[in-house]
Structures are given as structure tokens and as C-alpha cells.
Write a structure and sequence with these properties.
Layout: E1 12-13, E2 16-17, H1 22-30, H2 33-50, E3 54-55, E4 64-65, E5 69-76, H3 78-102, H4 107-110, H5 116-120, E6 142-149, E7 155-161, H6 168-181, H7 183-187, H8 197-207, E8 219-222, H9 231-241, E9 244-246, E10 251-254, E11 257-260, E12 267-268, E13 271-274, H10 297-302, E14 307-309, H11 326-334, E15 341-342, E16 346-347, H12 351-359, E17 364-368, E18 377-379, H13 385-397, E19 402-406, E20 412-417, E21 420-429, E22 431-434, E23 438-440, E24 445-448, E25 464-470, E26 478-479, H14 488-491
Parallel strand pairs: 5-25, 7-15, 8-9, 8-13, 13-14
Antiparallel strand pairs: 1-2, 2-26, 3-4, 6-7, 6-22, 10-11, 11-12, 16-19, 17-18, 17-19, 20-21, 21-24, 22-23, 24-25
Helix pairs in contact: 2-6, 3-11
Domain Circularly permuted ATP-grasp type: 73-449
Pfam family, one: CP_ATPgrasp_2
Biased composition (Low complexity): 477-509
Length: 509
């Protein structure tokens, strides 16, 4: 993980097209650039017609935007995915056990494996949850684990998203777009399906319904409304699962039971997939000025009459200051060695770490412990002296608010950009569902840094998405032929202006 580490290209290696990309390489060589551009335009029209947007506020103009979609899929072989998914399941199990312990006996804190102040003084810690066991003992029902790759078998966990991870709608709609635009190409690969995710999500939510619910559990998605950046996703998932999407005023609590207002009268709600922050859930418990939540919701929750997914307080598990201790959680709760590695992380609140970070700002990535979306971040190798001086002052003033990580030579995949097909850096957000059992739909959301030289994959920072194909087989590598104009820039590695060592993408969409 040094600056001289070569970038791993997921398509080519040692004069060969890697097995998962062999068919794609042939397709790219045989497809004129103009045909690819037409398909990209068709994909854009398709997403516009469907209405897949995300919102960026505070920048002026129309906040509703399309996330750019790249039509060249990112591909993983079956063995690669199986190895990765085992590590994801292990990690999410440990995170849930940590949350249960953090709000219970706090055994891991008593054992000195995690500093108690990191949990008890964490702004995401909810004392209201202390001593309470959620239905099924699950805190994080839907987790999005951000993963980056630096080699053929080298996957690193970049972030854990345990509160309200977004992006699954782009995973599903991206696959649907590829099936429409390239049916022949899709048919030529044995691709593991993702279309059953809404069904898996619904079954996961139903599995944690309160024991006293009558008959078939009624599920609803609680959204803050149309001004939320992920509102499209809320509506999309509700439609796919056949459940209602509701806002706070659509619900009320009576005798510690949650009801939904309908045209035919009140209907009891047993499980709420909430897509609003803890602070706004219940004005009687959290922010009294909130008009987004439901008065009395927490009382109904604690009475065992409704399940909330994800549980309030789950945010301590994805705090960036807690992240370095996840491998220790795995050892403590599961008695196993971590299958996936963390990116080495410096905690600026530690004097020695802080001194190192301040000395090496030019080569590190500095992040806010509570930051997201690629904001509040310094990419040292691409920063100015003025920017580094500004961050040094911030770190000295509030060291507990910052962490730092070394740069990683992130893998690249072929991507259609203005100059042709060129390598671009990617990360991956698989979605893990945890109820009575743990479910992982093969693939996830691949996010790609579309700008030349860009290191940040977040949609709010100019990144795009790709369909992620997990193959049902493990195709063999094939000799790389002389590159066509379409594939030349990809086969030669990073394009002009890109360094061989790049840093990781960051934060949620």
C-alpha cells in the first residue's frame, strides 16, 4: 500500500484477459465506439423516463440529478464473490453482536478491547436503547459494507454502513437496464440474479416482526419525504415489496401500537423500515421540533409492538472511530480471525497517531469521523499546501473528529468516458440482510470515479455507477489480443494524468 504499488487492473493481467472479462473483451473489440455511445444515450433516456434521481441541495440549480450509469459491467467470478461474501457475513454478524453488547452488558468495553469513551461519548450512541433488546436481537437489518480491491484476492473494507445504507435501487435498475440494452451480452454470461432482493428484504423484515403481531406482519417504509436525496429509492423499494411508503403524519400511536391511516380506516403496522435519522424518529424522545417522525413511536417499540429496521443507535457501529476495532469485535464475539482486512487507520485523537498524520498529510486521506458523501475530506496526494494547512489546523483544534488512512492502489475496470474506454477506479457496496438468518444478494453497487484523476466515487462528487455481475462459473484467463481502438487505453493501464497509486473512494451515495 505504498505509492509505488501498481494498480490492479480487473480486466487484464500479465498479457491475459482475466477469465471474467474474456467475453467482454471480445465484445468491446467487435463493437464500434458509436454503437457504445448510442447505448449509453439510451441508458440515460431510460433512467430519465423511470425517474431514477438523487438530490444534491445547496449548490443552486435543479437539485434532482441522474447518477451517471456506465454500460460496461464490473465482473466478479464465482470464487471471488464467495470468498468476499463469507467475509461480509462474518463482519455483519460481529457488528450486530457488538451493538447488542454495547447497549447491554458492554463486555467488550470491560475487557478493554475497545475504549469505553469511544462508545459512551459517541454522538451516535443512544442511551434510550440501553438495556433494550430489539426484536430478534438484531440492530442492523440492512447493512452496506463498502469494499475496495487492490489485487486478485485482496479486498479491503473501507466503511461499514449500519444506519440507513442507500443505493440498492441503482443496483436493481442498473441490472434491468443492462438486460434491456444488451440481452445478447447478458445471455452470453451466466450471471447470478439480483432481482429477488426486494423479496429477500421483505422476508428479512417480516422475520423480525413482534411476536404479538396478528397474522401476516404489515411492513411500511418510513420516509422523510420527497426532499430526501434517496426518496426515489424509498418509493421504488415499497413498490417492489408491495408495501406502503409513509411519512410521519401518515402514522399514529395508540395504546403503544402503531397504526397507519388509510382510506378504509386505521391499519396496524408491525415492522417499519425507517429511512429517517434517529434524531427525527420520535419528537417525544429525540428532537421535540421534529415533524418527520411519529410521536410515541419509541414507546411502541419498547413495548414490543413494532420492529424498527435499522434499530435506533445502530450508528455507533459505522462510526469511523469505531471502524478500526471491527477486527477485534470479530475475534471477541465469534472467536475467529477476520476474513476481510481493514484499511490501516490513524485516530487523530491519539497523540502518536496525530503527530504522524500531521507529518504525512501529503500522502494520507483524512476524513471526518462522522462525515459522508465525500465531504469534509482531504486527499493528501492531490491537495494543495493551503488545503493541508487548513486541515492541520482543524485536526489540532478537534482531533477526535478526524481519522486518516494511507492511500491504496485501487483496482480499475474498463469504463466508457469521453475519450473512449479507459480504466477508472471503483469500489463496491454489497448489501447484507440480517434477520433470523443472514442473506447476501450476489453483487452490489459498483461506484466508479468517472473524472480522470478523480479518487472519489460518491455520486455527490461526480461519481457514477455500474452493474455488478457475479458469474455462476469461474472462466479461465485467455491471451489478450492486440487492442482495438475501443480497448487500447484500458489495456495500457491508467491514462495520462493518473498516478499508479490512488486512494480509496469514500462514504455513502
Amino acid at each position: 500500500m505504498t505509492k509505488t504499488t501498481p494498480t490492479f487492473d480487473e480486466m487484464t493481467a500479465d498479457g491475459l484477459f482475466r477469465g471474467p472479462y474474456a467475453e467482454i473483451a471480445r465484445w468491446l473489440a467487435a463493437t464500434p465506439r458509436e454503437a457504445l455511445e448510442r447505448r449509453r444515450h439510451e441508458a440515460e433516456l431510460l433512467f430519465k423516463r423511470i425517474g431514477i434521481t438523487f438530490a444534491v441541495y445547496g449548490e443552486g440549480g435543479d437539485p434532482e440529478r441522474l447518477i451517471p450509469f456506465d454500460i460496461i459491467p464490473r465482473i466478479l467470478a464465482r470464487a471471488e464473490w464467495e470468498s468476499l461474501s463469507r467475509g461480509l457475513v462474518q463482519r455483519v454478524k460481529a457488528l450486530n453482536l457488538f451493538l447488542l453488547d454495547a447497549y447491554g452488558a458492554q463486555e467488550i468495553l470491560k475487557a478493554g478491547r475497545i475504549p469505553g469513551a469511544l462508545v459512551r461519548d459517541n454522538e451516535a450512541f443512544r442511551p434510550e436503547m440501553t438495556g433494550f433488546v430489539p426484536p430478534g436481537g438484531v440492530y442492523t437489518h440492512i447493512a452496506g459494507i463498502d469494499v475496495v480491491r487492490t489485487g486478485a484476492s485482496d479486498f479491503w473494507v473501507l466503511e461499514d454502513n449500519c444506519r440507513t445504507p442507500s443505493g440498492v435501487s441503482y443496483m436493481l435498475e442498473g441490472r434491468e437496464a443492462m438486460l434491456r440494452l444488451f440481452p445478447g451480452l447478458c445471455a452470453a454470461h451466466h450471471i447470478a440474479p439480483v432481482s429477488h432482493y426486494p423479496e429477500e428484504l421483505l422476508e428479512t423484515l417480516k422475520s423480525v416482526a413482534p411476536e404479538n403481531c396478528r397474522g401476516r406482519p404489515r411492513v411500511a417504509i418510513l420516509t422523510p419525504g420527497s426532499f430526501n436525496s434517496a426518496y426515489y429509492e424509498h418509493c421504488f423499494l415499497a413498490d417492489e415489496m408491495g408495501v406502503e411508503v409513509v411519512e410521519g403524519p401518515d402514522l399514529f400511536v395508540e395504546d403503544d401500537v402503531v397504526f397507519m391511516k388509510t382510506t378504509t380506516g386505521p391499519r396496524r403496522v408491525d415492522v417499519i423500515y425507517r429511512r429517517i435519522d434517529d434524531d427525527y424518529l420520535d419528537p417525544r424522545v429525540f428532537r421535540p421540533e421534529s415533524v418527520l417522525g411519529v410521536p410515541g413511536l419509541m414507546a411502541a417499540y419498547k413495548a414490543g409492538n413494532v420492529a424498527l429496521a435499522n434499530a435506533p443507535g445502530a450508528g455507533i457501529a459505522d462510526d469511523k472511530a469505531i471502524y478500526p476495532y471491527v477486527p477485534e469485535m470479530i475475534r471477541f464475539y465469534l472467536g475467529e480471525e477476520p476474513l476481510l482486512s481493514n484499511v490501516p487507520t490513524y485516530l487523530c485523537e491519539r497523540a502518536d497517531d496525530r503527530a504522524y498524520v500531521l507529518e504525512h498529510l501529503h500522502e494520507l486521506v483524512v476524513k471526518l469521523t462522522h462525515g459522508s458523501g465525500g465531504y469534509g475530506m482531504l486527499v493528501g496526494p492531490h491537495s494543495t499546501a493551503e488545503q493541508r494547512a487548513d486541515f492541520a489546523a482543524r485536526i489540532k483544534a478537534k482531533p477526535h473528529e478526524y481519522i486518516a488512512q494511507p492511500t491504496l492502489a485501487l483496482s480499475t475496470v474498463p469504463t466508457l468516458v469521453e475519450s473512449g474506454i479507459a480504466p477508472r477506479h471503483v469500489d463496491l457496496r454489497p448489501f447484507i440482510l440480517c434477520g433470523k438468518d443472514v442473506r447476501v444478494v450476489p453483487g452490489g453497487l459498483t461506484r466508479v470515479a468517472l473524472r480522470e484523476g478523480s479518487l472519489v466515487v460518491n455520486s455527490s462528487q461526480g461519481g457514477g455507477t455500474k452493474d455488478t455481475w457475479v458469474l455462476e462459473d469461474d472462466p479461465a484467463d485467455v491471451p489478450a489480443v492486440a487492442p482495438s481502438p475501443q480497448t487500447q487505453s484500458q489495456s495500457q493501464g491508467p491514462s495520462k494524468g493518473q498516478s499508479q497509486s490512488q486512494t480509496q473512494g469514500t462514504a455513502p451515495c
